[in-house]
Amino acid sequence: MFATVGVIAFAGCALAATHLNDNFHPIVERRVYRSAQPTGDEIRAYRDEYHIAAIINLRGEARGRSWYDEEVKTTRELGIRHIDFAMSARRKLTQDQSLALIALMKSAPKPLLIHCQAGSDRSGLAAALYLAALEKAGEEKSEAQLSIRFGHIAIPLLGTYEMDQSFEAMEPLLGFSGS
Hints:
Structural class: alpha/beta
CATH architecture: Alpha-Beta Complex
Distance between the termini: 30 Å
Largest sheet: 5 strands, mixed
């Protein structure tokens, strides 16, 4: 029982720590970053410090929602390309959807910011696919983007394990044997 409580406490601390910095992390320094949902002020700061040229919003188009309207308005004001790619952390991506996301990340202006709501699950899968497909970073380094370090907890039936399953389904196409 104490071990279970310890694991839960560790996971809670790790999740809290990832969100203190808006879960903003480099995937590849000076080229691709990941984060939780950025505010307009955060977008401005990321543009100023990291020279962000494009943002891929993995939450999909959501006109009329304050977070979305603020993001679109801010990117328009700053001349940052805004790209929507709708996906759910609770549904596996098909191989075709994963390939479309990879193509989108490849063609987007750099430096690129990829985000979802918390920056943990959808952003983790996108980061893993980017590293595997476009940087040829290898399976272990790519899969590390889907980890507790970024707030991702992979437990079947929890609702976000589908991101891990999506990556596993892509492994043959990425040149990995699977694990």
